[in-house]
Amino acid sequence: MSQATQQETVREDGVIQSVSGPVVTARDLDARMNDVVYVGNEGLMGEVIEIEGDLTTIQVYEETSGVGPSEPVENTGEPLTVDLGPGLLDSIYDGVQRPLDVLEEKMNSPYLDRGVDAPGIEMDKKWEFVPTVEEGDTVEAGDVLGTVPETVTIEHKVLVPPTSEGGDVASIEAGEFTVEEAIVELDTGEEITMHQEWPVREARPSETKMTPREPLVSGQRILDGLFPIAKGGTAAIPGPFGSGKTVTQHQLAKYADADIIVYVGCGERGNEMTEVIEDFPELEDPTTGNPLMARTSLIANTSNMPVAARESCIYTGITIAEYYRDMGYDVALMADSTSRWAEAMREISSRLEEMPGEEGYPAYLSARLSEFYERAGYFENINGTEGSVSAIGAVSPPGGDFSEPVTQNTLRIVKTFWALDADLAERRHFPAINWSESYSLYRNQLDPWFVENVRDDWPEERQWAVDILDEEDELQEIVQLVGKDALPEDQQLTLEVARYLREAYLQQNAFHPTDTYCPPEKTYLILTAIHTLNDEAKKALDAGVPVEEIIAIEAAPRLNRIGVQEDYVEYIEDLKAEITEQLRELY
Amino acid sequence: MKEYQTITEISGPLVFAEVDEPIGYDEIVEIETPQGETKRGQVLESSEGLVAIQVFEGTSGIDRNASVKFLGETLKMPVTEDLLGRVLDGSGQPIDGGPEIVPEERHDIVGAAINPYSREYPEEFIQTGVSAIDGMNTLVRGQKLPIFSASGLPHNDLALQIARQATVPEDNKQGDSEDSEFAVIFGAMGITAEEANEFMEDFERTGALERSVVFMNLADDPAVERTVTPRLALTTAEYLAFEKDYHVLVILTDMTNYCEALREIGAAREEVPGRRGYPGYMYTDLAQLYERAGRIEGRDGSVTQIPILTMPGDDDTHPIPDLTGYITEGQIYIDRALNSQGVQPPINPLPSLSRLMDDGIGEGLTREDHADVSDQMYAAYAEGEDLRDLVNIVGREALSERDNIYLDFAERFEEEFVDQGFDTDRTIDETLDIGWNLLSMFPKSELNRVDEELIEKYYHEDETEEAVEAEA
After folding, report:
1. B46, B74, B102: which is the final residue of a domain?
2. Which residue intervals define the domain ATPase F1/V1/A1 complex alpha/beta subunit nucleotide-binding in the entry (chain B) (predicted)?
């Protein structure tokens, strides 16, 4: 959270009237809605959420034990903002953008203490600034002034703040600067630094929203192959506990071909965030080979951290994402989990004694969810570049019941739905994404990309797989009643082919070094291998070979090993030839 | 410190009193009844002139003339290494007749959140000696792994078995943990005196009491006290782990009673209820307990939690198991059907899960084949289970040879792998070897989740023949 401006803007102070958990009411406080205030003798950070008469209600982002009436409340006069500038990547924040590593140092304790604040980016670090405009050039809001090598992967673009009037560049200089030193002076007298602030609850401006036409390639077969998400698209991953929401989110954060990843751990487990902190600096970015952390910004507000900061962490995340979008980057934001965010809203709302909507959630739940997802998209930025924010939200429905309000309200907005299934998880079918319930509305608009960049018949192959899986669904119902042997031979064969689709194509081992990432070409080739088995087996069947013999060919089980092959092209070629040969030998 | 005789309302576990000075939220209160009894409570809401107090020991006996004293601090737990071997009541007072506890430090019982940046990722395997856990749902140090049970099931026996047998195998110990000792913290909330005796007798019989601290809130103790008991237990655990380098195993039973107490307080405060009447903040509240498990970088000790909860009506979508499952790192299911078959411990591996397993197993940690074996057995047992439904309809003869092997596997898996008895302590090698005995029933081509090299190394050729013969 920004500290730079708070001193000069302090306004009227008030006193605490009552305290109940994270909700504090103050008397005589002159404040606007959503102003940030410092509460009590320890100066705990909070935000104004209700004003009634001379009483102001504040949600406090820290523990309130021991805070009592008559302690002071100080208004900063500023809404909740994030600090933007170089240094956002390769860092880890809490829900109000306090860097957790700095907090550890300042508090000198592994526990999170109260009343300690720190700016979101390092204020005294020097960055190497390289101008891209010259003196005399005319610049407008959003224009790129120069670049800073932020990490090995990402070149940070220094932008004219969106609020600036613009003007002619009066002076600009290359060299080392801190984020607070002016790097550019305009003829209007405006000085521009690398440091910007932006209120989290407000979307950064853009020119227009465009139709996304490029997939966010994830390296996960079932996602890329069957239910792709676009760069700038939105997706929801609902599922009961233990079905693999977090692993799916982690896989996306690791392998999605976005330039920047913003990972928001919202009300989830501490150990999970630690895993990300420990793993990401060591893992390689599949596109650049650099450490993954170099393109990642983490926001960790675990379940035991204050609930009000959980409410704000989603906004902090999306604002950072928009900032990089403005530079022309493709950003992917993962929010795990949006249900915890909704629950934080519910908790605050119930402390305010608001009239509850469905299942105790506030009536504005659906509005907040759509506001959030609408900040995603493929944009033309105000400086003319194109950038995108893809938003992928995990949902944790109570009891795994998708009819609950958070899932339902999310589904009304997002265009990709990856339904996790406890049943699949129980049999260790991972990723446990249910192929008959899930959908992607981007399929058609992304097909041209796959046709152009992978293979011509990508859509047809996919349709073939979908048809087989649908047919299996129907056949399984019959099998449950009469057993497999009662089916006609060609249907028994379909079941066998569908089994390979499930085991060799849909399943993917996130913990295997090779199988964890599957390029689209491999995704396509695996499908063609299974298709070959299907076609050749059909021919054999037509030639009168009994289905038992067809199923028993030695080469078929090797389909299940394609995933772990590094030299998959050759392996698949060999396998197809072998399957064909072994089947043709039968007749 | 002022005393007030200004109680205006008494309702359930809550007392409202007028005050003329500011009182801090969460502060501790002492209420003295006219009979001279002292009860402790905590400030739930503080506004100018009026505070709401939640009384731990129940409000009976309090009247308008009772005196209310605010102690000016939040609830603290006196901690010292001497607590080991002691038995305390649900609010931390000794009940074993032993000497008074001389605290070394006093810690706030509402533990501050551990900075995720300061945590160390748990990946040190704990051998519980229970195959269904070690082999299929491995527990690691610093994990929180609850037992999902229900009334009438032997969850306590399993908890005791784990407490008794849990070790870190010698050759896996990392350098820094050599000297760390093992301690058990037992936090009982609303369990019956009989259950409590069962635990105490076992602790005494095995000598485990010496390295344990026991907190007892029994079924007839005040319900509100239950909201404090786990916090006292966890504060003690954190102290022993992170300041005295112990590896602490915390057993909390029964979390269902804890949640009932939360609901009771919520109802008394006339809060807007969430699902099934439980407060809307129950997720946050439970997280503040469960998240106190873990490891901290630079500290040798660890806090591992095994909370036990009984699912009302065996329903795991009930808010208590549901919210718990979303916070904890997996769960162990006790299964009623397996229990009635006489399987001990009746753990059903299919819905059970350990999220931290993948990083705690494998070469150098347990054994190279661990992940593949467990994966394959999961898939095979799940398929066997499916086929059981089918057999009921079409009979075994209608099934293919392949299906019959899966059925046999499911049978033998329960009998040989899961059913080991509450007194058998198996090493991880024994567990995995039994796994291979069972997997070798299948032809090699069916073992599609096991690496081919591992199949060559561990597969028993003869088992398949036996199976085929048995079939014939």
Report:
1. B74
2. 129-354
Structural domain includes residue B362: no
Q: Nearest by CB to B24, which of A67, A107, A511? A: A67
Question: Which chain B residues touch A39 with a CB distance below 8 Å?
Answer: none
CB distance A503–B448 less than 8 Å? yes
Architecture of the structural domain at A3-79: Beta Barrel (2.40)
Let me know whether B58 and B114 are in one domain. Answer: no
Write the CATH number of the domain with boundaries A208-434. Answer: 3.40.50.300
Read off the CATH number of the domain in which B253 is found.
Answer: 3.40.50.12240
CATH code, domain with B63: 2.40.10.170
Listed in order, strand segments (DSSP E) in B271-381 are: 295-296, 302-310, 330-334, 347-354
Contact A285, A292 (CB under 8 A): yes
pLDDT on residue A5: 44
A106 is in an annotated binding site: no
Residue partners of B280: CB distance under 8 A and separation at least 6? A343, A346, A347, A350, A360, B271, B272, B273, B274
* B400 with A303: Cβ contact below 8 A: no
pLDDT higher than threshold 50 for residue A53: yes
List, for residues B295-336, the tens digit of each pLDDT value: 999 999 999 999 999 999 999 889 999 999 989 999 999 999
Per CB-CB distance under 8 Å, the chain B contacts of A17 are: 47-48
Backbone angles phi, psi at B329, to 5 degrees: -95, 60
Nearest to A96 by CA among A270, A310, A356, A297: A310
- A167: alpha, beta or left? (left if phi > 0; alpha if psi -120 to 50): left
Of the candidates B376, B346, B363, B405, the one whose C-alpha atom is nearest the C-alpha of residue B131 is B346
Q: Identify the bridge partners of residue A45 per DSSP, sorted by sequence position.
A: A38
Does A1 have pLDDT greater than 80? no
Q: Which pTM was predicted?
A: 0.90
**b/e B396-408 (16+ beta carbons within 10 angstroms → b):** eeebeeebbbbbb
A239 is in an annotated binding site: yes
CATH 3.40.640.10 corresponds to the domain A458-584: no
Owning domain of residue B47:
2-74
Radius of gyration of the CA atoms of chain B, in A: 25
Distance (Å) from the alpha carbon of A481 to chain B's nearest alpha carbon:
7
Say whether pLDDT at A74 is over 60: yes
Q: Please tell me if residue A404 touches chain B, with a CB cutoff of 8 Å.
A: no
Q: What percent of chain B has pLDDT over 90?
A: 59
SS3 B43: strand
Question: With bands split at pLDDT 50, 70 and 90, how would you rate the model's confidence at A447?
Answer: very high
Q: List, for residues A501-528, the tens digit of each pLDDT value.
A: 999 999 999 988 899 999 999 999 999 9
Q: Amino acid letter at B100? A: E
Residue B103 token pair: 């605290």
Question: Number of structural domains, chain B?
Answer: 3
Neighbours of A460 (CB within 10 A): 12
Cβ A354 vs Cβ A368: under 8 Å: no
Q: Report the complex ipTM.
A: 0.85
Ranges in chain A annotated CATH 2.40.30.20? 3-79
Tokens of A290: 């650099």
pLDDT above 70 as % of chain A: 98
The yes or no reply on domain A127-194 and CATH 2.40.50.100 is yes
